[in-house]
Specification:
Elements (H helix, E strand, L loop, with lengths): L2 E5 L3 H13 L4 E6 L11 H6 L15 H4 L2 E5 L2 E5 L4 E4 L4 E3 L2 E4 L3 E3 L12 E2 L4 H10 L5 E5 L3 H12 L3 E6 L11 H13 L3 E4 L3 E5 L4 E5 L4 E4 L1 E4 L3 E3 L15 E2 L11 E3 L4 E4 L6 E2 L4 H19 L14 E6 L2 E7 L8 E7 L4 E8 L2 E8 L5 H9 L7 H7 L4 H8 L8 H7 L1
Parallel strand pairs: 1-2, 1-7, 2-3, 7-19, 9-16, 10-11, 10-16, 11-12, 18-20
Antiparallel strand pairs: 4-5, 5-6, 8-17, 13-14, 14-15, 20-21, 22-23, 23-26, 24-25, 25-26
Helix pairs in contact: 1-7, 9-10
Length: 431
């Protein structure tokens, strides 16, 4: 009996298991997850903290018997090591599992900055349901909360904290908010918006130390010391793949995969936040840690695991991952697609209206829109994504967009449909 082993019980692991089961009704499937709760979405945690949902609302599948119903075995344990040569996985509970195909889908883990006092009581990441429970107990109305990090994840957490009525300070060592998604103008606009909402923001600043106590005393590199009842560390994440050391599986930033999501080891695949796959816009291998990419990678990997186990060629290809970010920061919508910083030798155009809180930046290479970002500009977000992902040749419309960047819909209608490209913007037009 063929055994498909999946490491990771998040969205990628769950969708891969379901894909395999549909294609191989009689094969054995095992998922290994290291948290005690049912499989859940980390992206739902801010909504849990806002009170919009309860813990059950974070679960990926609502039925308590879902995995039993589809005959998938779930093992609660931490992966200690993998040996590709012997097709075995060692777990921290003493078990050793063998496999015919393997999916690495263990996602990411929070970066823990090397700050004295970072392990103090009252300092938490915001990554697990256990973290959410701890934060909810401390982030009560009027509580003093200091958040370390103002990146994409940090801004989502900020939204939840503001909804809880805390006194919030945010420390970001970059020179602007969301520095990996926004340029100086856009990042500055987001900062101004957040500060106008009552959040204290320190950019270009580091946390130097945290002194334990109630309250915690947080020393900043700008000479200030901030008292906090809760410190949240949101300094980014990294692929959770340390257990693959000496496994025989090639890893760079993440687990290196091909267009079938297969690694350098036949029969071993990777998907989700720990997988490094091709970005079709930039042509580079990247880790794109967003749930839509994880879901698509899981479907492709699951289908190909079944094909491999039957001695067949891969049946499914990943078209590529893309850099897609749409962020709501206390009511201000910002977006980032593709190579938003531009490319060497490329051209760009910006349109900024500070008073209206709107900013639009387009990046071109030749006559193709290779990246863009926006603040407060919710019109035609689907069109921006479609033009970038579809690598649509704009022809004369590139010069028109350089004269008036707001003509994105017209550029799409004139070019993308004729080239048979991504059709999502058509739905937007009908709304």
């Amino acid at each position: 009996m063929t055994h498909h082993l999946i490491l990771g019980a998040g969205p990628a692991g769950v969708i891969a298991a379901e894909t395999i089961r549909k294609l191989a009704p009689d094969d054995t499937i095992t998922i290994v997850g290291d948290e005690p709760e049912p499989s859940y979405s980390r992206m739902a945690i801010p909504y849990l903290l806002m009170g919009n949902i309860d813990e059950r609302g974070t679960y990926l599948r609502k039925s308590a018997t879902h995995f039993d119903d589809i005959k998938v075995k779930v093992v609660r344990a931490l992966v200690k090591s993998v040996q590709a040569a012997t097709k075995t996985v060692a777990l921290d509970n003493g078990q050793s599992l063998s496999f015919d195909t393997l999916l690495v889908a263990t996602g990411s883990h929070p970066v823990r900055p090397p700050i004295p006092g970072i392990e103090s009581e009252g300092v938490h990441a915001c990554w697990t349901l256990a973290d959410a429970r701890a934060i909810a107990s401390l982030a009560t109305k009027g509580a003093r909360v200091l958040q370390l990090g103002a990146g994409f994840i940090g801004c989502i957490i900020m939204e939840a904290l503001a909804a809880r009525g805390v006194e919030l300070s945010v420390v970001e060592m970059g020179d602007r908010m969301v520095p990996r998604m926004m340029g100086p103008t856009a990042g500055g606009m987001i900062r101004d918006w957040v500060e106008a909402k009552g959040v204290q923001v320190f950019t270009g600043t580091k946390v130097e130390s945290i002194t334990p106590g109630k309250p915690l005393q947080v020393k900043l590199s700008n000479g200030k010391t901030v008292a906090a009842d809760l410190v949240i560390s949101a300094a980014g994440v990294r692929p959770a793949i340390g257990y693959l050391k000496d496994s025989g599986i090639t890893c760079l930033l993440g687990v290196l995969t091909d267009e079938h999501l297969q690694t350098n080891v036949p029969g071993v695949y990777a998907a989700g936040d720990c997988a490094e796959a091709l970005d079709k816009v930039s042509g580079k291998m990247i880790v794109s840690a967003i749930q839509p990419n994880a879901a698509e990678q899981a479907r492709v990997a699951g289908a190909n695991m079944v094909a491999f186990s039957r001695g067949n060629a891969a049946t499914s290809n990943l078209k590529g991952v893309t850099q897609i970010n749409v962020l709501d920061t206390l009511g201000l919508i910002s977006t980032s697609f593709g190579d938003w910083q531009g490319r060497p030798g490329g051209e760009h155009v910006e349109l900024t209206d500070i008073k209206a809180g709107r900013h639009l930046s387009l990046q071109f290479q030749g006559d193709v829109l290779v990246g863009c970002n926006s603040v407060g500009w919710t019109e035609h977000v689907g069109v921006m994504r479609g033009l970038v992902e579809g690598q649509v040749k704009l022809g004369e419309w590139k010069e028109r967009l350089k004269q008036d960047p707001t003509k994105l819909m017209e550029a799409y209608l004139a070019n993308a449909q004729a080239q048979g490209q991504w059709a999502g913007a058509q739905d937007e037009r009908r709304r």
